[in-house]
Design goal:
By secondary structure, this protein is of the alpha/beta class. The protein has 6 helices and 6 strands, in the order βαβααβαβαββα. Bound molecules: magnesium ion and zinc ion (ZN).
C-alpha cells in the first residue's frame, strides 16, 4: 500500500488569506514546492482542506474551485502533482465527518487511493490538522511559516527535512 503525505493547504502550502475566493491571492509558501518535489513518487501527496467559507456563504463553489486550480497549477509548474484533493465545505456546526479535526477526509483518501495510514504523515498549521492526522493513525506535525510556541516545524526547509526523515529518505 502507498504511503501518503497529507497536507493542509491554507497556511501550510500557501499563504493563508482567510476564506480564499480569488486565485490572484494564491501564493505558495517559500520552499514548499521544492520540499515536495524532492520526495519520491511513491509518496502520495494528498491535500485535505477545511473550506468553511463555502458553508458560510463567503465563497462560491466556482471561486473555491478556481483557487484550488491555481494552487495545483503553481505546484505543477514546480513539478509537484497531488494524488488527491479533499475539501470539507461544511461549517463547524454542521456535524460532518470530514471537517478537521475529524479524520473523514484522510479516511476517504485511504479508501480511494489505497493508502497505508500507519506509514503516512499529516502536516498542518492548526491543532485540528494534527488531531485529524492522529485520529487517522498517521504521524502528525504542526507546521508554521514563522516561529511560534506551538510549531513542531518552522518553515519548509525544516519541514522538508523532517518529512524526508519520516519516509526514510535522509
Ligand atoms: Mg491551515
Ligand atoms: Zn465536512
Amino acid at each position: 500500500m502507498t504511503r501518503a503525505l497529507f497536507l493542509d493547504r491554507d497556511g501550510t502550502l500557501i499563504v493563508d488569506v482567510g476564506y480564499p475566493r480569488d486565485p490572484a491571492t494564491v501564493a505558495l509558501l517559500p520552499g514548499a514546492a521544492a520540499a515536495l518535489a524532492a520526495l519520491p513518487a511513491d509518496v502520495a501527496l494528498v491535500i485535505v482542506t477545511n473550506q468553511s467559507g463555502l458553508a458560510r456563504g463567503l465563497v462560491t463553489p466556482a471561486e473555491a474551485a478556481a483557487v484550488q486550480a491555481e494552487v495545483e497549477r503553481q505546484f505543477a509548474a514546480a513539478g509537484v502533482r497531488f494524488a488527491g484533493v479533499y475539501v470539507c465545505p461544511h461549517g463547524p456546526d454542521d456535524g460532518c465527518r470530514c471537517r478537521k479535526p475529524a479524520p473523514g477526509m484522510l479516511l476517504d483518501a485511504a479508501r480511494d487511493l489505497g493508502l497505508d495510514l500507519g506509514r503516512s504523515m499529516m502536516i498542518g498549521d492548526k491543532a485540528a490538522d494534527v488531531a485529524a492526522g492522529r485520529a487517522a493513525g498517521c504521524a502528525a506535525l504542526r507546521f508554521a511559516s514563522a516561529p511560534g510556541p506551538e510549531a513542531d516545524l518552522v518553515g519548509w526547509a525544516a519541514a522538508g527535512a523532517r518529512i524526508a526523515a519520516h519516509f526514510g529518505l535522509e
